[in-house]
Amino acid sequence: xxxxxxxxxxxxxxxxxxxxxxxxxxxxxxxxxxxxxxxxxxxxxxxxxxxxxxxxxxxxxxxxxxxxxxxxxxxxxxxxxxxxxxxxxxxxxxxxxxxxxxxxxxxxxxxxxxxxxxxxxxxxxxxxxxxxxxxxxxxxxxxxxxxxxxxxxxxxxxxxxxxxxxxxxxxxxxxxxxxxxxxxxxxxxxxxxxxxxxxxxxxxxxxxxxxxxxxxxxxxxxxxxxxxxxxxxxxxxxxxxxxxxxxxxxxxxxxxxxxxxxxxxxxxxxxxxxxxxxxxxxxxxxxxxxxxxxxxxxxxxxxxxxxxxxxxxxxxxxxxxxxxxxxxxxxxxxxxxxxxxxxxxxxxxxxxxxxxxxxxxxxxxxxxxxxxxxxxxxxxxxxxxxxxxxxxxxxxxxxxxxxxxxxxxxxxxxxxxxxxxxxxxxxxxxxxxxxxxxxxxxxxxxxxxxxxxxxxxxxxxxxxxxxxxxxxxxxxxxxxxxxxxxxxxxxxxxxxxxxxxxxxxxxxxxxxxxxxxxxxxxxxxxxxxxxxxxxxxxxxxxxxxxxxxxxxxxxxxxxxxxxxxxxxxxxxxxxxxxxxxxxxxxxxxxxxxxxxxxxxxxxxxxxxxxxxxxxxxxxxxxxxxxxxxxxxxxxxxxxxxxxxxxxxxxxxxxxxxxxxxxxxxxxxxxxxxxxxxxxxxxxxxxxxxxxxxxxxxxxxxxxxxxxxxxxxxxxxxxxxxxxxxxxxxxxxxxxxxxxxxxxxxxxxxxxxxxxxxxxxxxxxxxxxxxxxxxxxxxxxxxxxxxxxxxxxxxxxxxxxxxxxxxxxxxxxxxxxxxxxxxxxxxxxxxxxxxxxxxxxxxxxxxxxxxxxxxxxxxxxxxxxxxxxxxxxxxxxxxxxxxxxxxxxxxxxxxxxxxxxxxxxxxxx
DNA sequence: ACCGCCGGGTGCC
DNA sequence: ACCGCCGGGTGCC
Length: 908
Description:
Layout: H1 2-5, H2 20-27, H3 41-44, E1 51-61, E2 74-80, E3 91-94, E4 100-104, H4 106-117, E5 122-127, E6 136-145, H5 150-159, H6 198-208, H7 233-247, E7 255-258, E8 261-264, E9 270-271, E10 280-283, H8 291-301, E11 312-313, H9 316-334, H10 348-362, E12 376-380, H11 382-395, E13 400-401, E14 404-406, H12 416-419, E15 424-428, H13 429-438, E16 449-455, H14 467-473, E17 476-483, H15 495-501, H16 510-522, H17 528-539, E18 540-541, E19 548-549, E20 552-553, E21 560-567, H18 571-594, H19 601-616, H20 635-651, E22 668-670, E23 676-678, H21 679-688, E24 693-694, E25 701-702, E26 708-709, H22 712-719, H23 732-747, E27 752-757, H24 760-772, E28 777-780, H25 786-797, E29 806-810, E30 823-828, H26 835-843, E31 854-861, H27 865-882, H28 891-905
Parallel strand pairs: 10-17, 10-18, 12-15, 12-16, 14-15, 16-17, 21-31, 27-29, 27-30, 28-29, 30-31
Antiparallel strand pairs: 1-4, 1-6, 2-3, 2-5, 3-4, 5-6, 7-8, 8-9, 11-13, 19-20, 22-23, 22-26, 24-25
The chain binds a DNA duplex (13 and 13 nucleotides) through residues 60-66, 81, 84-87, 89-92, 102-106, 109, 134-136.
């Protein structure tokens, strides 16, 4: 219990980011002490665009009253202490470990207080010398902030009689002092940050994972007896690496031993006790290489001192019983994949029978009573929960029994004593966050010290302010693993949560992460990327599908070819297309001339959607609930119009991102100015900009009471917009598809195909054509119940004669785990906005288990919006390749990108 | 703190 | 002397 009550260092700690107004906001509620960690995501994240204003020498006083010590050249943190009873301007000075060293002298503190409270600048300190002083010591301060705040900061300092020295070359990162024998020397970063070109960054990034196969990462290790599956060579390597990391007593990265002290060469912090290495790391293999299997092998193989997990060996008379139980587990799993809300839970009976099982298994005589913790906690998104259960079932030998508890569902057992008796507890990020949200102190998963925690698809916690992230970061464990196929999605920033989870000192504290890694990288400081590289390298194992083991490709995947098949519209189709295009172009031109493009963003997406639909089939384009009228009607009409616009944006398949968090929309809401954001994101913007918040995209007034959300019924109603008895006709695209399918059938009637579209109504139209030509087909889309999905997949994957040869697939159906290797042909009926979504879809058949070369055919209508979409896709690919280490785009940059996209799409 | 600063004691040479 | 100077007490914010 004790670790829960203690204020936590290294959790989400925003000391230097705390905001005056927000602390007042919370203290008015009597909540001070809880507030600071909850500061908005918008203000503090701007630290990426900070420039160095200058430096100032000051002094730290009161050293004799505190135990925190520093070394010469060590970085220190300056932290406001507004509740200090002697001086409301007080500024504390802490060392890297978070121990207080002293205070900033009061005259200087008086000047700093306003600057820090109003977040005009971030003030960072380094103690250049005098670290052994008894009463006072000097501190060299650097002032960082956004260009527009520079004057205000200089004025503020001047008022108190201080003046910044020009940013000396060497003190850009306070790194003059860390050069010493070990650290790299930085030269002239400061004002004119050397921004690397995209290509340079990209190649640097590629190097990040080079040489990873060297070191000790090529040793192989066999799994324990209880691992029922033979591991592939690269999986044995991963197992060996993971086991060695769990049992290692090496120093963590950037620490060195020097005469009985341990030095951190980035911050110059020293401690007497040997810092513990991360007993874990990041397994960042590409998907399909078997991260799940390897992790299961790890759990079974490395319990304590390199000994296997003492699992129960099953005697033959028991094995029937257990097999039967395993069956129930898998049944449970297959119905649990719908959504995270409690309503979508699997059937009560199935769950309770499973829980009953676990209980009965626990009553079986216990062979082992270990002192330390024995349980591994696995946290994953709901969509892969069932995959874990399946894989445990598949890969644990039939002769052994693992106690696995699925901590999910409203009747989950919250007794920590029961949970900590399991071998494995499986749960989801949302369940964890929900428990934690109800009460940090009653959350059962937070009461247990785990043997090991595994975060699957760990990039789901890349937002440090998300409740899920906070919940994950405050779990206790000996060993910590992060599984992800995408270690760095958008920027270095995304790494922080992961590094912090791994408890890598001193990076658990965002300030140190930012000063030592993030800023040097984003500013392009020479050596910055190398530093990040050596950090990543020391804790990460990453192989891609094309990596090699002993000169051989890791996975011998068949070839994958993408062909573009141009389609010419028939005359009548072309006419409709042209007239809709003309009409849309006139409207969009008007928006451009009026400068109201963004205000009509949803309308424009609507035009583009209609054009894309017309490329597929004229019948798709009947949802012409044109919302061009902007007449201010009754509030209810206005609301309905906004709901319609939002539905348009959401259904347009444009994969809209929230401009605040840059991720796909969760709980979308629409503003009066018709821009769609995540509800929590926009609430945060409104709160942090109070009293006068404005839309991040267009700066118009923003008020909570003006936000409109789409109720669940409305969403449902819109999705089953079934076509009434319209008479079936074909289309040019369908003809092209059918031609290809029939040719293929002649060639080889057993080849299976995926026919993919973003428009489920289009899939329905294609059904007609398939029926007419006598194809046996099945279908998988997002609206299907879990049971039906499983049926469809099993049916399609079957190699039996008469099994379907075609699967109609909606582009985003199914999670990453979806396995459709029976297909070796893909027909992509319409291009997606986001090329990554297409690739993901292709990977569902082009993956481990695929026996044939995969040929993908993209149908693209000539002289249409589809051709332009291909261009945008290419641009996005380039962008994604170079996205690493670039800073978060501002709202105005997003705006510009969107405008450019629109221009490119409608060829203006 | 081998400082600065404060405030009481003190007062030609 | 409503000063200077001395020397003891004292010391973060």
